[in-house]
Request: fold
Amino acid sequence: MKNTVNILLLLLLVFAQVSIVSANVVCTRNKDCPGDTGWELGVAIGVGGMTNPLVGGDNIPLVIIPDIAYYGDNLYFDNAEFGWRTSITARHEINLFVTPNKEKAFFSFWHTSNILGPIFTLDSPFQSGDEMNIGNPIIGQSTVSIDDVSSRKWAADAGVRWRWKWKNSVINSSVYADVSDVYKGTHGSLSFTSKWAFDDWTVYTSPNVHWYSDNLTDYYYGIRTLPLLGKGLGYEGKSGLQFGMRVLALHSIDDSWHVLIRASAVKLHSGMRNSPLVDSSTVLSGFVGMAYQF
Amino acid sequence: MLTASIVAMISFLSQASSDPAIWRVEPDTCLVSESETRCFMRVSITLLSLSVGKVCIIANKQVLTCMYEGQKSVTVDITLTSDTTLHLNDTNGKRLAEHTLVFNKLLDADFSQRTRLPWSLF
Reply:
């Protein structure tokens, strides 16, 4: 029922945006016009962060945000996504790409003790940041490997994206699959991104929905080794849909300098929320800073 | 050596993205949907390196506006029905610079060059 309400709200937002987008687009050649090719390089410095939904996880600081993109006729690189794109028609485009999966980021700012601490007593305490190679700590009188809980690996995804471009808006539909043999699963997303221009401001809004497979959810948020300690302590992550919203605003001071404001919110799906590793149902992110574009 | 190369590359890219001409005209492209035949745009014109007196901006043989000595920038509202060239002339009618405003259909070049939101690495 809740999912249905969420979907209806998303569709309402999508249609509301479709109905009021501007018909005209003005831009500057070799700078921000559709069809321009070449490099876009920038760096933003400011204050911000992303909340970490893991139990006791450290929030992820955002101080420096680079923006690195290259677009050729077909090949492109855009902030860690390397791909090839082609137009099917003037309005439809297909992308094939590889990109890192970002789910591991939360675990890089998380310490295994945060979840194991309340449950077990470790004979040999470990320091913050050492979660990758804890070894075989003694829990009571039993030796248990907690590698499966403590170390989540980075993964690489290959994907295909269909883009439908309409006036100032783009619908992106993407499917990703693990090609690094790490989580052995898939995920997919659907987003509706609109670009708005007001005087010196450019604002992007992007409501989105993301589906995660059983395998992905279970690899990052499941607990497989704890059943050694008894039934009921493990957790198997299940697939699910989650909804999010991203807003990005750029205020131009001159050709190179901009004020950058970024915010996003994601409601984690139940397969993640119900994991013992997770104690927050949302991930919030915000950043305010100065951006310089070369 | 590596640092010097990176600095040189950034310097080159920075220069390449700036307009070396004596004026800057932004934006210079107006895109409309297939059904529309006119495109309204507000153009910002900035003089970068000009030390003459009064200059005028002309399009389709009509004077849009003039700028007086010491004035660095001006805004011009213009409606395009096709590609239109702006001329920067001095008071003697001598052409100092020109810049073409492009009229195009969204169907040919739709929104969003980039496949991802900018500034979205994290």
In short: The CA atoms of residues 52 and 69 of chain B lie 7 Å apart. Confidence is low (pLDDT under 50) at residues 1-20 of chain B. The longest strand of chain B covers residues 95-105. Chain B touches chain A at residues 10, 13-14, 17-18, 26-33, 36, 39-42, 102, 106-122 (CB under 8 Å).
